[in-house]
Amino acid sequence: MKGLCLLLLLGVLLLAEGVLHAAAKQFRDVMSHGRSSSHVRSHKKLHGWSPDQNQWNEKLYPFWEKGDPRWKDCWRGGKVVARLTSDSPALVGSNVTFTVTLQFPRCQKEDNDSNIIYDKNCRNDSSGFPDQYVYNWTTWIDDCGWENCTSNNTHNVFPDGRPFPHHPGWRRRNFVYLFHTVGQYYQKTGGSSAIVSINTTNITLGKQMMVVSVYRRGHRTYVPVATASGIYVVTDQIPLYVNLSQKNDRNASDSVFIKDSPITFDVKIHDPSHYLNNSAISYKWDYGDGSGSFISNSPISTHTYTLQGNFSLNLTVQAIIPVPCGPATPTPPLPTSPGATTQNATSTANKTESTTPAITTIPPYNLDSPTSAGVMEDTPDGGCHIYRYGHYKTTISIVEGILQVNIIQMTSVQMTVTQGENSLVDFVVTCQGSLPTDACTIVSDPTCQVSQNVVCDPVEVTDQCLLTIRRAFNEPGTYCVNITLGDDASQALTSALISVNGAPGSSSRTVEGVLIASGFLVAFVIIVSLLLYKRYKEYKPIERSAEQAVNREGLSVYFNNVKAVLFPGNNERDPLLKSKPGIV
Predict the structure, then answer these.
(1) Which of 67, 169, 179, 428 has an alpha carbon 20 to 30 Å from 534's alpha carbon atom?
(2) What does UniProt give as the signal peptide span (predicted)?
(3) Angstrom distance (rounded) from CA 423 to CA 75
(4) How far is residue 142's CA from residue 493's CA, in Å, rounded to a whole number?
């Protein structure tokens, strides 16, 4: 009978212990916020992280559900917001970094000691601030010191019971940050921001969730002040994008470009952790116009389309990544398909990245392979490599466009006294390529930096690109004139320095402007400019060489504009004026 009572008592004790153990919260209960965590149990251990089955000290770190009224009183003067960002997407094997920044209520900020104070320079709706400090943690810490605080269970202890690391600046770490992902957690102290990096080798490909909870130091417990979450992506494809640009293209974002003008393709690989720094990277281009494939080691490429139409652009990037070698296995792992996130692909990638990867041989420059599997190659130099691939595909349209604009003649318009004091100048403009639909003139100071006047007009050109643009100048002096001709897909620019009405000192300033733009001999240009100044006192355009003769029709000269300096790729000769155009 006595033995039976002992067995019953033992059973009751075991049952009570089981009930208490079941009632104790675990990290997964607190950090999952109601989300199921069963799918993350198969993940390999992250370096420095702990499994979320560990118990959570709810007495020291209270857990509040969303909507709990206690959230309203967790911070003095308002609500704290946690901003969580990451540099995702991350190539598997690289690091992904998370940054949490706390945004305090209006008129509150962190001082040099990491105390939270009121900003005296901030205008508050109330009459004033009740105190200098929102939270003066320096005073609290000085009351106990490190030794006394660590001996007290209510200070300097994480939710799992581990003591805080004794950093040199531990007094300025009054927030506790708890990160949770793929069934594991990481805890650290900090100020108003915290940064955590994770190596993605053991993380399943695809989208993952990162959750962070932030607690502040309190007198007896730590108080929750904010939570945040965000999606990050781990991929076996090299993250990249391509920036397409073209001279005279009006809108690069519409994927419409100009025929017979080179397009620049600039590949940007997203690798913030510099995982690919020691890799050999190759770029294989197929421009889709029948010109064949082009392989380069440079991320920048140019191509000129000579036909109009729609073309499919394809790029394959291959990275040969050096890694430590493991023992060979007879059967290589199955490669994953582009963008695959299936369970088979995930298992293969994880096996490849393990400490015993499969070794196989792949042609070093086989850019035709669409796979991104982490298969390895044993090279003659004794090293091993992983091959990763990235892909880019887009469709672009090639149309006719304005390739070049030239000012071939400038003429000062003679005016009567009744027409006013403004000086009128006619610019005879021609262009190559398609016909323009609009013309804009920007008049600036001699440095071409400060705009003084902008005039845009629609133009109608039916036969050849030849038109006259008349513009007024209110005062004498030296001006930088930019003339732009455009259509729906393109626009081209030409520039010139002009001197109007022989303003005092304009001759010397004009010569200086030509020297900056063209770099001719000083003495030669000064002589030519003085001769022109004496002959044409009302209007003096800028010349480039002595071979440019004075036009007998009115007060005009040929000149070479500054566009040769602004756009050195354009060195074609000015077309000849064949007919008298209309005036815009």
Answers:
(1) 428
(2) 1-24
(3) 68
(4) 68
156 sits in the region (left: phi over 0; alpha: psi -120 to 50; else beta) called: left
Q: Decide if 236 contacts 336 (C-beta within 8 A).
A: yes
Beta strand extents in 12-143 (DSSP E only):
50-51, 81-86, 90-91, 95-103, 108-110, 116-118, 133-135
Tens digit of each residue's pLDDT (9 = 90 or more) over 439-479: 999 999 988 888 888 989 888 887 788 888 888 888 888 99
Query: Locate tokens 């088979």: which residue?
Result: 344
Residue 107 region, left (φ>0) first, then alpha (ψ -120 to 50), else beta? left
Strand partners, 98: 86, 196
pTM above the 0.70 mark?
no
Give the sign of the dihedral formed by CA 165, CA 169, CA 170, CA 175: negative
User: At 5, which helix (H) or strand (E)?
Assistant: helix 2-23
CA–CA separation, 322 and 376 (whole Å): 9
**Cα–Cα distance, 174 to 119 (Å, whole number):** 19
**Residue range 387-398, pLDDT digits in tens:** 999 999 999 999
Strands 539-541 and 116-118: unpaired
Whole-angstrom CA distances from 4 to 7, 9, 10, 12, 13 are 5, 9, 10, 12, 14
CB 359 within 8 Å of CB 390: no
β-strand pairing of 116-118 with 108-110: antiparallel
Q: 372 to each of 197, 278, 313, 351, 353, how far by Cα in Å?
A: 24, 18, 20, 14, 13
Using the 8-state DSSP alphabet, how is residue 553 labeled?
A: T
